[in-house]
Specification:
It is a single chain. The protein is mainly β and 1335 residues long. It has 12 helices and 82 strands. The chain has an 11-stranded mixed beta barrel with strand order 27-28-29-39-38-35-36-37-31-32-33. Strands 1, 6, 7, 8, 9, 10, 18 and 19 form an 8-stranded antiparallel beta sheet that branches. Strands 58, 59, 60, 61 and 82 form a 5-stranded antiparallel beta sheet that branches. Helix 2 (122-135) packs across helix 4. The longest helix has 15 residues, at 3-17.
């Protein structure tokens, strides 16, 4: 046996064990709809829409912001010409091209797909960084963005004839562009068996059998040369003939066949593309041979099959460079981001995730197995990058989890040497969370009292707000409507799961057409849904960074709308930011139509980093043109987010979201689209419990404050607990000012900013947050070399100083040789201020600026306050030249002029406070000529108005904050809806200025409503010291209280009227028994089915714009409804016959008419007037009016009459001595029925079955009854919210509730409850029952 044969034998054995295979399809970068890819339109010559990069990318030496993907295997940085201008030509092209496989490709009729996306996914970026390091070991490159395009199973263009069919050859390949602010690298990936054709025939080959090999490489395109000429730019070609195309999957240049890496761009200088330098050769493992020594030299029979084309020139590769084995597990290890599960399926089964065997992990780290991802998901993977991660240490070491495979057990073991730990990365956790280390990494968990995913945490029970923009194009009935960054705001009452969404400036017709698209606001309902037992709402899982994409398909028209909503974190106010993009078409809805949607349920499926759901829903469009029409739409959605794979998982697989009330409307006059949805989330298939078994916390029938959490107890018991950051008894909660009370977590060099329920820390000027995101560190301004070249920079805490070197003079920013001259006055002045503090200027102090000659610069500016002014040669300020920060500075080189009236006005207000304007006070704005600017705005209140040349306000021009401002350069036409400032607003502004813009809890500020009128209840600051006022702001006697429950005050001014108005006639109610209830400007009808409220048939009986309907009763004999109008100060009635109009029966000597009762037997009317404190009576037509009682009354509210006995009952909620009284209908036998144990007896009813008087008390929260003789008092319910009025019918009590803004039904035996909440949410007042005949 010769030495050569022995060597050959061992080489053969080596190749048997260790060989290199091409990259597999499932090993290329993840792609497809599941990962959020966009699919290019099918066709032979298609180009994507412009792709705007989130950050620019360098290609060669130039920076580009846009990309285009084309069918024919290329990416370009500019829009492409028609394919015939380049696809059959040679390389290079005359436009910029990145070409993984330039050929005539065809994807029409389902022949393959092309996917693309840009991403900041840590998974992708970490893998790309590792791939670049494999090809360029000496490169220091950390990508921040990536762009991935994948051609999957695409075909070559073929002209089919009768004699030839399709070839069925398909190709799959991929390009990955990884880049940061400096460099760009390109990866071309060609999986095994991914290239089945290597070129395409030209379209104009005239039946000549010719095939052009695919072109692979890069070209810069033509460049400008001189002024009018162009020249060919640099290019780099990888292929030259068919064999070199085949080599794409047979070879590679980073140690793996089929993977090619190139450096394709740099910010500083770049001549041409540089390929990687680690060659890999595809080899085939021969069969294992017996140890037989051949007698002659061994030759490989397959040598020709795997020969490498000698024409393939790659000067960077060596002949036999030993490839490195890169197993899939190692690659997955490189891809796994901080605290996030890998989304790639395992090799063995595309539908499963590899996960450690829990038996081989320490007990405290045993995690639940992950659910397999669905094989066909819809949408994109989590797009947001990891923020505030400290850079890698010098030397380029990457800290990652090292996975080692135990081939005996198949279990993945983790090395903890370089794992991510809390010590290094806890800044990624919320300030209201704690960090926990596990064997494979760390996870963030919200502290007690907060909910979220640990990276973002919010206080339990506190209401939340969402802000964002809506963009996109929506096609409505053939008309494309562009939505250009319009505002979206949502308010969520987390304790009840109520989500209110408003989108402003929505133009017609898309405003009407988007009414059915409640899924836009449905996202916020799911995020903050009321959690039933053993469930979690969306925010508890995703936190504040996720992407939600929904595809909505409408039937029968097959219109399709895509909704993409991206949450980008919490803002400085701790509110969620969500941007919404709409694209597609929706059905046309006639203007003025209404949309009704029934409650429904949706099932959510939970996977690692992915949540999906699919549902179909119905909606009804009611319009004058078409009546009621029912349509259907289907919603498929995916929500992708960052999941922490290291710690304990929630174990959720499915949950059911219940949307119990849905209200949608479009307000044409305001161009506002509104969605209101009540949401609960719970386990799937839990069933509907009996109403009496539902705890009030889960039914929402509790009286906890909106800033409190309802904590369920046993049975019907519950506890109201103020949210974290709030204090109070749970029914009335107030924000805790952590800054004022010293409860903040702010450290040195920072100050505290109070937020609702929380606070944030803000670094002082000259400081910035360190890597931990919490500690303020000094900013070394000297790093940026701000000083003159001949000056020294001295950094100090929060500031820096520039000082000219010896032999030079100046302010440090400009230095000139001294030439032996003495210092000037300005230089002495400047240097003396600097030398007083050891050469460092006093922080916040003014330092004069001198020019090159040492003279005062004509314009001086204060570095801390931002004010600037002109000075004379002695450095003295020139009067009238001072400008505040952010305004246009004076031209100090112009001759001085005397101050104008505006400037004197402005400067007098400023100089009264040391040159600093009074906080909260108005400062007039002057233009460059010193004249009043035509538009003035109050910096504190946000109001703006137009003024004349004297600075006097022009009537009718004032606009409140958030509305469109007037054009003050046009003549003003005062619209009817515009109004001057009200008494309440003027009083409030005056007191605000008196308090210096910062009133404290001891100061009183009038509370005004949206119309500027006095709010009916007034309070001192945030206290519970409250009272009622009339329309002029005067206190109503007997209403002042310091109880936790605010007084039951009724507004005396109707809200503004919106036109056009419906006719004020009666809409016939349905047959049978129904409830009538007063709701401000309308009277509503709620039919009863037995004693059950038929909510679906509720309607409006009368629309009474400009009214405030309070008391209401029904005359069963003549079928007429009677009511009091607090705004009109009238008593009215209307027949229930169709078309009947209301009539006024009393309109004199009424001030605050409230409760009202009809004596059917005696045909008399009784009412209370709460301002003069009287009880009066009259005939039903208003005649024979007389006063029954006008003494010993303070705040009479409810009144009822028991006709059979002729007894009158009324309540007086005098806060000092509340009582319930009775008398005969003629005013005789007046006596007190109840005066102990009551607080705010608003509601009163007579139960004819039990022959008892019953009342509902908003103070004690109880429903009680008592016999007319004062005996048999009993409590029926002790857990009411805020009742206002009540009626008894059969064995039920029905009362209106101010906390729920609805009608609550309660059975006499307290065994069942129900509620009806009208779509229009506002206070409900009186309520009565209207039977079909007198009982």
């Amino acid at each position: 046996m010769t030495w050569g044969k022995t060597t050959l034998f061992f080489l053969q054995l080596f190749w048997t064990v260790h060989h290199v295979t091409a990259v597999h399809r499932h090993d290329i970068y993840p792609y497809g709809m599941f990962y959020g890819d966009v699919t290019l339109q099918e066709g032979d010559d298609e180009t994507s829409e412009v792709i705007t990069l989130t950050k620019p990318m360098y290609f060669y030496e130039a920076s580009f912001n846009i990309l285009y993907v084309a069918t024919n295997g290329i990416i370009s940085t500019q829009d492409l010409p028609m394919e015939k201008q380049y696809v059959d030509d040679g390389f290079p092209t005359d436009f910029p091209v990145i070409a993984p496989f330039l050929a005539d490709i065809d994807t029409s009729k389902g022949k393959g797909s092309i996917f693309y996306r840009q991403t900041e996914s840590p998974t992708v970026l970490k893998r790309a960084e590792a791939d670049v390091r494999r090809g360029f070991p000496d490169a220091t490159f950390t990508p921040t963005h990536a762009f991935i395009a994948t051609w999957e199973n695409v075909s070559a263009y073929e002209e089919l004839t009768r004699s030839s069919g399709p070839s069925n050859r398909i190709n799959t390949f991929q390009v990955v562009l990884a880049y940061n602010e400096k460099d760009t690298y390109a990866l071309f990936l060609y999986p095994e068996d991914g290239l089945q054709f290597f070129g395409t025939r030209p379209k104009e080959s005239y039946n000549v059998e010719i095939e052009l090999p695919a072109r692979v490489g890069f070209t810069r395109g033509e460049l400008s040369y001189f002024f009018f000429s162009r020249t060919e730019g640099p290019y780099y070609s990888v292929t030259s003939n068919e064999q070199s195309v085949k080599n794409l999957y047979q070879k590679g240049n980073i140690g793996e066949p089929g993977v090619w890496l190139f450096h394709v761009g740099n910010r500083n200088s770049f001549q041409n593309v540089v390929p990687a330098q680690q060659e890999a050769v595809l080899t085939k493992a021969p069969p294992v041979l017996d140890a037989v020594f051949p007698d002659e030299d061994y030759t490989d029979p397959d040598e020709d099959e795997y020969s490498i084309d000698p024409d393939f020139q790659d000067p960077t590769t060596t002949e036999f460079l030993e490839p490195e084995d890169s197993s899939l597990l190692e690659r997955l290890n490189q891809e796994e981001p901080l605290g996030q599960s890998p989304l790639q399926p395992s090799v063995s089964d595309p539908g499963e995730f590899p996960h450690p065997d829990p038996r081989n992990l320490p007990p405290e780290d045993v995690t639940q197995p992950q659910r397999p991802l669905p094989k066909h998901a819809i949408l994109q993977v989590y797009p947001n990058r990891v923020k505030d991660v400290p850079p890698h240490p010098s030397g380029g070491q990457v800290f990652s989890v090292e996975e080692k495979v135990n081939f005996d057990s198949g279990v993945i073991h983790y090395s903890t040497d370089n794992k991510e730990t809390c010590e290094r990365f806890q800044q990624q956790c919320s300030q209201n969370a704690h960090c926990t280390d596990y064997s494979t990494g760390f996870c963030c968990h919200c502290n007690s009292g907060f909910y979220g995913n640990g990276r973002h945490c919010l206080p339990n029970g506190a209401p939340h707000r969402v802000n964002g923009k809506v963009r996109g194009t929506v096609l409505v009935g053939g008309t494309a409507v562009q939505l250009d960054s319009i505002d979206l705001h949502a308010y969520i009452v987390v304790g009840d799961g109520r989500a209110y969404t408003a989108i402003s400036e929505v133009p017609e017709p898309v405003g009407w057409a988007l009414m059915p698209v409640a899924p836009i606001g449905g996202l916020f309902g799911w995020l903050f849904a009321l959690e039933l037992p053993n469930s979690l709402n969306g925010f508890s899982i995703t936190g504040a960074e996720f992407t939600r994409r929904a595809d909505v398909t409408f039937y029968p028209g097959n219109q399709r709308l895509s909704i993409v909503q991206t949450a980008t974190g919490l803002d400085t106010q701790n509110y969620l930011n969500v941007d919404t993009h709409l694209q597609g078409s929706v059905p046309f809805i006639p203007p003025g139509a209404t949309v009704q949607m029934e409650p429904f349920k949706d099932t959510y499926q939970y996977y690692p980093s992915l949540i999906t759901s699919s549902s179909a829903r119905e909606f009804t469009v009611v319009s004058a043109e078409n009546g009621a029409e029912t349509f259907t739409f289907q919603v498929k959605q995916n929500i992708t987010y960052r999941d922490c794979s290291h710690g304990h998982r929630s174990g959720l697989e499915t949950q059911e979201l219940r949307m119990e009330r849905i209200f949608v409307m479009y307000v044409k006059e305001e161009r506002i689209l509104r969605y209101a949805i009540t949401n609960k989330i719970g386990p799937l298939g839990a069933g509907e419990p009996e109403p009496e078994n539902v705890n009030p916390c889960y039914s929402g029938n509790h009286d906890c404050d909106t800033t409190a959490q309802c904590v369920p107890g046993e049975g019907q018991l519950f506890l109201c607990q103020c949210a974290t950051g709030y204090s109070g008894d749970g029914r009335n909660c107030y924000d805790v000012d952590e800054c004022a009370e010293g409860l903040s977590s702010c450290g040195a060099h920072s100050h505290c900013v109070n937020l609702p329920g929380s606070h944030r820390c803000q670094c002082e000027s000259g400081f910035e947050f360190g890597f931990d995101g919490r500690t303020c560190q000094d900013v070394d301004e000297c790093r940026d070399q701000p000083c003159h070249a001949q000056a020294l920079c001295s950094n100090g805490p929060g500031s820096f100083q520039c000082q000219c070197q010896p032999g030079y003079h100046g302010d440090g920013f400009q230095c000139q040789p001294q030439n032996g001259r003495p210092k000037t006055q300005c230089e002495h002045h400047r240097d003396s201020l600097q030398s007083e503090n050891g050469g460092v200027p006093l922080v916040g102090g003014f330092i004069p600026q001198c020019d090159e000659e040492g003279q005062y610069r004509s314009q001086q500016c204060h570095g801390s306050t931002g004010h600037c002014w002109c000075v004379d040669s002695r450095g003295q300020e020139r009067a009238g030249t001072r400008t505040p920060p952010g305004t246009l500075r004076m031209n100090c080189d112009e001759p001085g002029r005397p101050k104008t009236h505006c400037e004197q006005h402005r400067d007098s207000l400023q100089s009264g406070n040391g040159g600093v304007p009074l906080v909260g006070g108005f400062i007039p704005q002057c233009d460059e000529e010193g004249q009043y600017r035509s538009q003035q705005c109050h910096g504190s209140t946000g109001h703006c108005w137009c003024v004349d040349s004297r600075g006097q306000e022009r009537a009718g021009t004032r606009t409140p904050p958030g509305t469109q401002r007037m054009n003050c350069d046009e003549p003003v036409i005062v619209a009817p809806t515009q109004r001057p400032e009200t008494v309440c607003e003027r009083w409030r502004a005056s007191l605000m200025q008196q308090y210096g813009g910062q009133p404290n809890s001891q100061h009183y500020l009038p509370q005004c409503d949206s119309s500027g009128e006095f709010s009916p209840v007034q309070c001192y600051g945030d206290s519970s010291y409250c009272w009622c006022v009339d329309r002029n702001g005067r206190e109503v006697a007997g209403t002042r209280s310091q109880d936790a429950v605010k007084p039951a005050c009724i507004p005396t001014v109707a809200p503004p009227t919106m036109r056009p108005l419906p006719r004020p006639d009666v809409t016939p109610p349905p047959a049978g028994t129904f409830l009538l209830y007063a709701q401000g400007q309308q009277i509503g009808v709620l039919p009863l089915n037995g004693t059950q409220m038929d909510k679906q048939r509720s309607s409006v009986l009368l629309a009474l714009h400009g009214s405030i309907v309070v008391g209401i009763d029904y005359d069963c004999r003549e079928r007429k409804v009677y009511w009091t109008d607090l705004a009109g100060r009238t008593i009215n009635r209307a027949s229930l016959e169709p078309g009947s109009e209301s009539e006024i029966i009393i309109n004199t000597a009424l001030t605050s008419p409230e409760g009202l009762a009809v004596d059917v037997a005696r045909r008399r009317l009784f009412w209370v007037d709460s301002t003069p404190d009287k009880i009066e009576t009259a005939n039903l037509d208003g005649s024979d009016r007389r006063v029954l009682f006008e003494k010993d009354l303070v705040n009479p509210r409810a009144i009822i009459v028991d006709s059979p006995t002729g007894t009158l009952y009324w309540t007086d909620w005098n806060r000092e001595a509340p009582k319930i009284e009775s008398s005969s209908v003629d005013g005789q036998n007046r006596r007190i029925l109840v005066q102990d144990g009551i607080g705010l007896p608003n509601a009163l009813a007579y139960d004819s079955t039990t022959r008892q008087v019953c009342w509902a008390d908003a103070g004690t929260k109880r429903l009680e009854c008592i016999s007319p003789n004062g005996t048999g008092r009993r409590v029926l319910q002790s857990n009411l919210n805020y009742p206002f009025s009540m009626v008894s019918f059969a064995n039920h009590y029905y009362y209106t509730d101010w906390r729920r803004d609805g009608v609550i039904a309660l059975s006499r035996d307290n065994q069942s409850t129900d509620e009806y909440l009208p779509d229009q949410r506002s206070h409900l007042y009186g309520i009565t029952v209207a039977p079909p005949h007198c009982l």
